[in-house]
Every structure is written in structure tokens, then in C-alpha cells.
Amino acid sequence: MRWLWYLVREAYANLRTNRLTTVVAILTTAFTLACVGIFLLSYVNLRNAANWLQEDIKIIVYLDDAVSQEEVQTLRERLRTDRLVAALRYISKEEALGEFRVQFPTDFHLLEGLGENPLPASFVVTPAPDFRSPEAVARWAERIGGMAGVAKIDYNQEWIDALAEVVRYLELTAIAVGSILSAAAVTIIGNTIRLALFARREEVEILRLVGATGAFIRIPYLLEGAVLGGAGSALALGMLKAGFEVFRHQIGLVGRFHGFEELVSFFPLSVSAAFVAVGMGLGIVGSMISLLRVGERRR
Amino acid sequence: MFVPEAIIQLIHVSKSYDRRAALSDVTLDIAKGEFVLLMGASGAGKSTLLRLLIGEERPDQGQIFVQGKNVGRLKQAEVPYLRRKIGTVFQDFRLLPNKTVFENVSLPLIVQRASMADIRRKVIEALRAVGVEHKKDQFPNSLSAGERQRVCIARAIVNGPVVLLADEPTGNLDPERTAEIIELFKLINARGTTVVVATHDPHVMTLANRRALTLAQGTVVQGPG
Ligand SMILES: Nc1ncnc2c1ncn2[C@@H]1O[C@H](COP(=O)(O)OP(=O)(O)OP(=O)(O)O)[C@@H](O)[C@H]1O
Ligand SMILES: [Mg+2]
Asked: What residues of chain A, 176 to 205, have a C-beta less than 8 Å from chain B?
């Protein structure tokens, strides 16, 4: 086991002798990966929000003001037996006005000025879980829209679609930014390893002379790369977490967004672990590239 | 007639650097257990020959055998295993300054993943054989040139190699130290290790008083007699 101890100690010695380079490499890797993390975190949260909105979708079937009591009854029966409808609530014109008064107390005088109640009666439909896709809702809305007494069907789909679009763009951006910045991290770590290799070229020469295999010579540098990448990504994760908590605290203070802070979430443990593992992987790749380059020059 | 087993054999070996021949058509045998001096002026090709033997360089032509293995045809991955059978000593010692004498000498064993107990036993044994056991915890920079060369020799023999190659091992030593080191090589040779010492110093040849192969401009001039 002496050899294992030797390899670990070599890697540690590499990190220690080039302390400044090590610190700089870890910091730059951390900032680089934190940038990737910001995109990833926004992406994950917005995607969650889009899914959550889609899950929480409510379809509002507005009724004509001239609708008769029988027509309301027929509609209610029709909707109650529909496969898509999981829950159904009727809101009369008066109830609509009442809700408006509660939600927008300062704007209520605007409606009072009109004299009569301009708000329509409506059915609020909660779709069954199997029918919450945008397509299913759209098809259903088309069918119901043609029925007698129905004025208009509204279900916030434009809003959800727009958000989904943003999520899609963010996904592409995250991939692009992630690739570029990952390449940057690989380069940073690769250069650090190259410096270490250069500083220890004599030692490498002696190891080769006494019969060390290529793998034995490479392992300390691969370990060093893994440590740099792992430490960088762990630090990035720490900075992200800190930034995230500050952000959450701040939006909690803004009254309008109150409650919103409960909806955003940080990476789950598995993703955090994967983030650090990817950082280590990038470090190992950087180290491999440097080892290959130095190896080729020797030939 | 008894033909001793050749442990090193070169058959029509040529090697050029940038079209300039460093060795041309060299054929020679070194028997198992022999002590051979490789003589020749600067640039004669002595170091080139030793580098060929440890797989550091490949011959352009000809064949090189070490213990029956065709060294010129070794795969890159096989070279480390060849080097574990060959001890090498250089004029410039090549010790690691940030490691103690003990650690320096244990390197050939560490790279073979020897056990801690094995390393301890063999390193102490090798250091004792070259007479610097008492310096085992010191760093190379605190040693004299003669002591450093002894440490270097200890590192070369710690593995129990079949062949010991030394390239100008006394180049940095005074005459007294030179004589001691040559005696040491003789001792190692007497225990069964084949020894090849490359030098341009005729004084070493007198001291060693063993078979000499002389190279001049890349060819053997004083035959394997
Ligand atoms: N790596 C190299 N690149 C180019 N030429 C080389 C190289 N190594 C050796 N040579 C040339 O090959 C020839 C033989 O060199 P070598 O080092 O084998 O001589 P030597 O007998 O060991 O000399 P010395 O006693 O000075 O060490 C010389 O002309 C030298 O310049
Ligand atoms: Mg030489």
C-alpha cells in the first residue's frame, strides 16, 4: 500500500508546491462553473414553474349574459359528465363581482361607476390529471366553445406556452453556455496540470527510468485534476447556494412576490452531487489533455 | 568450448540522429555475470548504446537482445518492465532533492507496488551494500558527490537487477572516490550482476582491469576479444 500512499502524497505535494496556481485554478473554475450553475438553476426552476402551472391549469368557461337557467343546467350536466372535468365550480355574476371586490379593493370603484355588473357568470373547470396537456385542453375548449350559452373559454395557455418557450430557450442557452464554460474550466485545470508536469519533469524522468508504468506516472496528475475540478465545483455550488438564499430572502420581502419564495427551490442533493462529480470529471479531462500533450512532445 | 550465455547482444545495430550516425553496424555480446567497460571518446556513441539497452531509444537497424528479449521491438507498455530488470547509474546522479536518501532508493520498489516491509528490508540492504546506510534520512543536497553516487548505485541495485548500466559514473568524482566506486561495481559484479560501465576515462579502465569494448565514431574498434 506504500505505492498508493506515494501517489496520494505526490498529488498533494503538487497542489501544495504550486499553492498560488492551485488557489487561482480552483477560484476561476468555481466562478466559471457558478455561471453554468446560475443558468442551470434558473432553468430547473422555470421548468418546474411551467410544469406546475400546467398542472394547476384551470379552464374558465364564461357564459353569455343572456343565458337561460335551463341552458346553465344543461351545461352543468354536460360538464359534470365530461371525462376531462375533475372538478367544477359555478360562479354567478354576483359571486364574480364579490371576488373582484376582495381581490382588487382599490379598483372596485371603477366597476361601481358602470352602474350594472359587467362581470360574466362562469364555470371553473379543473381538468383531470390525464387531460392537462396543452393539446388536450385546446381540443376540449374547441368542442365546448361551440355549445349554446358559452361566450368564451379562457385557460391561460398563452401564458404557459410563453413560459415553456422561455424554458426551451433557456435550455439551449444553458447547453451552449455550459459547453463553452466547461471547456474553459478544462483549459484552466489543464494548464495548471501542465505547470505541475513541467515543474516535476525531472521526477517524471526518474520514475520512467526506474520502471514506473505510464499509469503510475499519470495517476497523481489525474488526482490533482480531480481535486481541482471537485473543489472548484463544490465552491461554485456553495456560492450558488448562498446567492440563492439571499435571492429567496429578498423576494420574500417584496410584498407583491410574497409566497413566491416558497416556490423556488435549490438543486436536490442528487443534482448537487452530480454537479461536483461533473466538476471532477472536467478536471480529469483537463489533466488527461495535458498529459497527452506532454507525452506527445517526448516522442 | 564453453560459450557463456549472452545477457546483452547487439547484432548489426545502427542509430542516427538527424542523419548523423551515432552508432553504425555495432555487433557485440556481453555474457551473463561479466563486467565490461565501454570506452570511447566524447561523442563515440556510448550513451546512445546504453539508451538503446533500456528502450529509451529505438535502433534504426539491427537487433538488440537483453536477457533474450528483443528490446528494439518492445511495445511502449513493455518498456517499464524491461527497466525493472536493469539498474542505471548516471554521472549526474539524478536523485530527487526533495526526497530523503531512503525515499530516493525506494522509488524502484514503490513503482512496482512492493509491500512496506519489502521496501524497508531491501532499501536498508542496498544502502548497507554501498555503505551509506547511516545517511538514509538525509536529503541528497547534504551529501558529498561520492555519497550521492553511492545512493544512486543503491537505487540501481535495490531491485536485484540482472544488469547494471553506468554512464560515466565517476565523471564528477575525484580519483580516490573513483577508485572506491569502481571497487563497489566489482563487488556488485561478484554477487552475480552483469555490469557495464561507459567511460572515456582510461584511468577507470586501469582500475577496473576488465574486458573493454572501445567505440570510435559509432563503431566497435577494439573487438569483443
Ligand atoms: N538526442 C540526440 N539528438 C541528436 N544527436 C544526438 C543525441 N544524442 C546523441 N547525439 C549524437 O550522437 C553522437 C553520440 O553521442 P553519445 O552521447 O552517445 O556519445 P558519448 O560516447 O556518450 O559521448 P560522451 O562521452 O560525451 O558522453 C554524438 O555525435 C551526439 O552529438
Ligand atoms: Mg555520454
From this structure: 202-203, 205
